[in-house]
Write a structure and sequence with these properties.
The protein is an alpha/beta fold. It contains 10 helices and 7 strands. Helix 1 runs parallel beside helix 2. The longest helix is centred in the C-terminal third of the chain and has 18 residues. The protein starts with 16 loop residues before the first strand and ends in a 20-residue tail after the last helix.
């Protein structure tokens, strides 16, 4: 614990953003803030005179973000927490006559990241009950607010940290953060043109043999079906399923699959010739 604030040298802008919690009264909020940070890829937590820390409640609320708590730096003053920063943002829902200009969180996220490209940046959050003092705000270059319901703008400290970290993650990845896919992809390769055309011929044959389509008066049925399946961007497995279904319809009608059709033991498992 108590690692020097400038000791992180990763190339990611998110690694140069400090979350500074000033005079936090409940240790659970520290743990919840650490969890919020870790879920969004931030790791720099500094605590200015917390009432209780370290504390088991912080660990419990961190929910496996213990590493953020273990690396957190406890500071005796705000000035100590801000040493080495090139820009500081005060998080406050209150409009103040004196202090830096205010900006909404989403706009601020891009600004924070731009400054993080230059050096260390801090997001300053105040006490759960009183928020930030005027003196603390005046040590910052910007004020950031979350555009909440004006009739009830009170947010839990960890919730405010979560929202800011989320906006920073979106901005850092240009709105498309990487997603870890744990599930097996439920997809197959796109169906090639020739397989799609065989399907259309198969479909037309079944519609004619069943009496659904009058080949002498086709009207616009086939073009509309082409448009329908075209929007679906059919995959190879989906073509197999559809042609297996058409085979089953033909067998039930006693016609049997025509030469050049699909073959297989069951619908959905057919293989195109």
């Amino acid at each position: 614990m108590n690692r020097p604030p400038g000791s992180h040298s990763s190339g990611s802008p998110l690694s140069r953003i400090r979350v500074v919690l000033s005079h936090t009264s409940h240790p659970g909020n520290i743990g919840a803030a650490a969890r919020a940070m870790k879920t969004m890829g931030l790791s720099r937590l500094l605590l200015v005179n917390p009432k209780h820390f370290p504390d088991p409640q912080a660990v419990a609320r961190a929910a496996d973000a213990d590493d953020i708590l273990e690396q957190a730096r406890v500071c005796s003053s705000l000035d100590e927490a801000l040493v080495g920063t090139v820009q500081v943002y005060a998080l406050s829902a209150r409009q103040r006559n004196l202090g830096p200009p205010a900006m909404p969180a989403r706009e601020a996220a891009s600004d924070v990241l731009a400054w993080a490209g230059e050096g260390e940046v801090a997001l300053l959050f105040g006490n759960e009950t009183a928020g930030l003092s005027n003196s603390e705000v005046q040590r910052c270059q910007r004020t950031v607010f979350i555009p909440a319901n004006p009739d009830y703008s009170s947010l839990n400290l960890a919730s405010a940290v979560q929202l800011l970290c989320y906006e920073l993650r979106l901005a850092a990845f240009d709105g498309r953060p990487p997603v870890l896919a744990r599930a097996v992809p439920f997809a197959s390769p796109p169906a090639p043109h020739e397989d799609v055309e065989r399907f259309y011929r198969h479909l037309e044959r079944v519609m004619v043999s069943s009496g659904f389509l009058d080949p002498q008066r086709p009207r616009r049925l086939l073009p509309k079906l082409r448009r329908l399946f075209g929007r679906a961007e059919l995959e190879r497995d989906e073509i197999n399923i559809l042609r297996g279904l058409l085979d089953a319809v033909e067998r039930t009608a006693g016609a049997g699959p025509a030469p050049g059709g699909s073959v297989g033991t069951s619908a959905g498992s057919s293989v195109l010739k």
